[in-house]
Amino acid sequence: MNRRLTMRQIRQVLRLAHEMKQSQRAISRSLGMSRDAVADYLIRARAAGLTWPLPTEMDDAGLENLLFPVIVAASRCRKVEPDWAAIHLALKQKGATLQGLHEEYLAANPDGMVYSYFCERHREFAKTLKRYMRQTHVAGDKVFVDYAGPTIKIVDPATGEIQTAQIFVGALGASCYIYAEAVWSQKLPQWIASHTRMFEHFGGVPAVVVCDNLKSAVTRASKTDPDIHPTYQDMAGHYGTMIIPARPRMPKDKAHAENGVLIVERWILFRLRKQIFTSLAELNIAIKALLEDANNRPFKKLPGCRRSAFETIDRPALNPLPRERYVYAEFRKVRVGLDYHVELDDRHHYSVPYALVRQEVEVRLTVDTVEILHGGRCVASHPRTMTPGKTTNPQHMDPSHRFISEWDAEMELDWALGIGGSTHDFMQIVLAKQTRRELAMRAAGSLKSLAREYSEERIDLACARALEIGATDVRNVKSILRTNLDRRAISPDAIHEASFDHANIRGPHSFH
Questions:
Q1: Are 161 and 155 in contact (CB under 8 A)?
Q2: Which of 101, 227, 272, 402 is deepest in the core (most CB within 10 A)?
C-alpha cells in the first residue's frame, strides 16, 4: 500500500477514535479496513505516546518513525564493522573483490559477519556516497577528458585585443585526480597537445581515454561503432592507450569528466573571474597553483584527498611513458597520379613506388616528414618541403624512366669501352657532335641496339672500319655491318688521298 495513503488512514483512525469517540468496529467499517489493523494502529499510537490532535509540525515521515521504528537485530549490532571507506578504496585495486576483502576481514575478526551480510553492508555504505563515486574504477585504467563550459578572457597589452581561452580537463577514474590547463581552442593540434602534457603531468599513461564526441576526437559519432579521428588514434598508438568515446547524449559515460569540470569551474575558474590575464602562460601559472589546492582538498566521506589517492592508487598502475613525445601528425587520403607522385596543399609533389599509380594512399604529415601509407604499411618517406616543386626517390621510378633521368655520356662511354677501344672512340665522336642530350641518348641507344643484333666483336670491327674511312654516324656502322665490310680488310689501292694542288686554291704565299 502507498505509504502516504497509509499515514493518511492512520491519522483518520486517531481522529475517529479520540475526537469522535468511535468504536474500533465503526472505524473499521468507515475506513474500509480490518478491525485488527485499527487495533494495531491504536496500540502503536499509545506506545508512542500519541494523542489527537497530532502536533502541527509532525509530517508523515515523523509519524512513521514513531509508529514503526527500525529495530536492529542484536546479533547484527554485535558484529565488528570494518572500515567501509577503506574497503571501498581497496576495491579500486586491480584484482580486488569483495570476497577477498571479506576473507581478510575474517582473518582479523574470526567472529565477524558472514559474506552475504558483508556485501549487504557495503551496498548500504555505497548508497551514502555521491552518485559519481558509485562506479568502481580499476587503478590506472581510465582517464576522462573534456572541456569546461566557461572560458577566460586574455587581453593583449599592446593592442587591447581580447581573446578567450578554453579549459581542458582530465580526471583519472580511480583516484579522481584532476589535470587542467588553458588552450587557445578546441581544434585538433591543441587537443592532441593537451593529452601529451596531461600524460607527462601524470607521469604515466592510463589504459583507456574516455572522451566526448567533439570533432577533434570523433569524425562520426555512434553508440556502437564510432570513427576515431586518425590523428587521435595515431597519438593513442604512440602512447599505448586506447580511445573509447562516450555514447552520444549519455553524460553518465564520462561522469568523472563532468565532475572534474564542475570542480575546476568552482575552485579555479570562479576564483579567477576577476583577474585580468595578458598571456596564456600567465593564465596557466594561475591555474596550476589553484589546481594543486583542489587536488589537496580532503574527501568528505573517504580518507585522504585526490593527490594522496593518486599517489597510492593510480600512479603505480599507470603504463610508462614512451621515450619520445608524440609528434603531431595529420592524415589525408590522396590518389597517386600517372607520374607516380602525390600532390599536397603546398603544391609540392612526392614520389611513391610506380606500381601504385592511380591507387588511393594515405599520407601522414608531420612538421618535418611526409610518409605515404598503403595497406597500413609505409611505402615512401620524404623530408617535408613547404615550397612548390617535386621530390623524387629514384627507387620509386619505372626502370625505363629511371634510366632516362639518370642518363649521362659517361655511362655510354663506359659501356663502349667494355666492347672495345674502337667502339669507345666512335661513341666519343658520336656523342660530341650532338647538341642536345636527347639526341645523344638516341644515338647511343641506336649503337646499343646494333650490339644486341650483332656480336660485340663485329661492332668493334665495324666502328674501327668507320673510323678508318672517316664516318661519324651510327647509320654508317649499320651499313658496314649489313654489307659485312667489317669482315674485309682495306686494300691500300682503295685509299685515295685528296690532292690540294689546284689553280683555284691559294697557297701560303698569299697570306703575308
A1: yes
A2: 101
CB proximity list for 508: less than 8 A, separation 6 or greater: none
Asked whether the beta carbons of 319 and 204 are under 8 A apart, the reply is yes
Alpha helices (H) along 128-187? none
- DSSP, collapsed to helix, strand or coil, labels residue 230 as helix
Does residue 92 contact residue 174 with C-beta atoms inside 8 Å? yes
Separation CA 235–CA 467 (nearest Å): 69
User: Which pairing describes strands 178-183 and 162-172: parallel, antiparallel, or unpaired?
Assistant: antiparallel
Q: Name the grid cell of 122.
A: 557495503
Q: Is the pTM of this model over 0.85?
A: no
Would you call 45 helix, strand, or coil by DSSP?
A: helix
| Cis bond before residue 53 (omega within 30° of 0) | yes
* Residue 476 burial by Cβ neighbours in a 10 Å radius (0-12, 13-18, 19+): middle
Instruction: Please enumerate in sequence order all residues whose Cβ is within 8 A of that of 360, keeping only pairs 6 or more positions apart, or say none.
Output: 333, 334, 335, 336
Phi-psi label, residue 21: left if phi above 0, alpha if psi -120 to 50, beta otherwise: left
CB atoms within 10 A of CB 147: 20
Contact (CB, 8 A) for 481 and 454: yes
pLDDT of residue 76: 47
Dump the DSSP string for 312-349: IIIGGGSBPPPSSPPPP-EEEEEE--TTSEEE-TTSEE
- Alpha-helical segments (H) within 407-488: 409-419, 421-432, 437-453, 456-469, 474-482
Q: pLDDT tens, 310-361?
A: 999 889 999 999 999 998 888 888 999 888 888 887 788 889 998 888 899 9
Other Cβ atoms less than 10 A from the Cβ of 225: the count is: 6
Q: Residue 318, class by beta-carbon neighbours within 10 Å (0-12 exposed, 13-18 middle, 19+ buried)? A: buried
State residue 374 phi and psi, 5-degree precision. Answer: -140, 120
Tens digit of pLDDT for each residue in 394-419? 888 877 676 666 677 777 788 888 88
